[in-house]
Design goal:
Blueprint (H helix, E strand, L loop, with lengths): L7 E5 L3 H12 L5 E5 L3 H12 L10 E4 L10 E4 L15 H17 L5 E4 L4 H12 L6 E3 L3 H15 L6 E2 L2 E2 L7 E2 L5 E2 L2 E2 H8 L2 H13 L1 H9 L4 H15 L4 E10 L5 E12 L2 E5 L6 H18 L7
Parallel strand pairs: 1-2, 1-4, 2-3, 4-5, 5-6
Antiparallel strand pairs: 7-10, 8-9, 10-11, 12-13, 13-14
């Protein structure tokens, strides 16, 4: 069912990530109607009211309210941020069993209300839960999108921009694979303002050591942030807003999201982080980066890890 009043986004789960995403949507005027859903009704009412008080200073008017699953019927995007958060010392994959049960319930209720838009999945482990959302919903694969390695890629570009004293926007580099411990830096295709990264690193000296340092900084970023303040949310919220903008404004932009592979990189039946073209239909196409032998082996390993964990989804079908 199309929303007749304009673009509509529903956010399910208004914890730190969900409400940060909602605030980014408001500040960037990404839709006409924003609906917040959460089990804690008192809190979600307060969040919606607080956000409405800022509409006067937003780029454009927006309807903001707390709602329920019936609001999903005519939504363009339903962003799922609900679930158990990663705690200090936990990996993202440790969260699977607890969050699969949550997602079975959430996705079922969304679909029962006639949703026919695009799912955007933010909850960890995002690759496995994106696969679960696709299986639970029955929607075409292009309309179930995980945040994937969009944050890992942002962290890498930030590190490289700082090292070479350029804006992260001038860095063309991607983190791919699992949004987790087996994430891969695609060094062989990375460049700084058109200069191949490996060539640029030679000028700094000790290129291999620097690449290892950058990769570890990206891989461990979430752990250090969680240790410092309990959770990560601003970076991923901005990344989710970027995905949302690409979809609702039909931008044809390439972002590293979690998408279903059907032969790309030689892999099948796995949701995993990869560059993909995003437009109004969702994932228009997956872009398989040309990887060197080492990167391909690591990507295969990452895909195998995720496929093994995806097997748990069958228990909830």
């Amino acid at each position: 069912m199309a929303n007749q009043s304009g673009k509509k986004i529903v956010v399910i789960g208004t914890g730190a990530v969900g409400i940060s995403y909602a605030f980014a949507v408001l500040n960037q005027a990404l839709c006409d109607e924003l609906v917040l859903i959460d089990l804690n009704e008192k809190r979600v009412q307060a969040e919606a009211r607080d956000m409405r008080h800022g509409i006067l200073y937003a780029p454009s008017p927006m309807k903001v309210k707390n709602g329920n699953y019936s609001d999903c019927a005519d939504a363009d995007i339903v962003c799922i941020c609900a679930g158990v958060a990663q705690k200090e010392g936990e990996t993202r994959l440790d969260l699977i069993d607890r969050n699969l049960a949550v997602f079975k319930n959430v996705v079922s209720q969304v679909m029962q209300n006639g949703f026919n838009g695009i799912f955007l999945v933010a909850t960890n482990p995002v690759d496995v839960l994106s696969y679960a959302t696709w299986r639970f919903s029955g929607l075409p694969k292009e309309r179930v999108i995980g945040s994937g390695t969009i944050l890992d890629t942002a962290r890498l570009c930030n590190c490289l921009g700082k090292a070479f004293d350029v804006s992260p926007c001038s860095v063309d580099a991607h983190m791919i694979g699992e949004h987790g411990d087996s994430v891969i830096a695609a060094w062989s295709t990375a460049n700084i303002a058109g200069v191949p990264l490996k060539e640029a690193l030679e000028k700094l000296g000790d290129g291999e050591a620097r690449m290892a340092e950058f990769h570890e900084s990206v891989r461990s970023a979430a752990y250090s942030i969680i240790e410092g303040k309990g959770a990560t949310y601003y970076g991923i919220a901005m990344g989710l807003a970027g995905i949302t903008q690409a979809i609702l404004r039909n931008q044809q932009v390439v972002l590293t999201v979690s998408a279903l592979l059907e032969g790309e990189y030689g892999e099948h039946d796995v949701y995993i982080g990869t560059p993909a073209v995003l437009n109004g239909t969702g994932i228009a196409r997956v872009i398989a980066k040309p990887l060197d032998a080492d990167e391909q082996a690591k990507f295969t390993h990452s895909a195998n890890i995720l496929r093994e964990y995806q097997k748990k989804v069958a228990d909830y079908l």
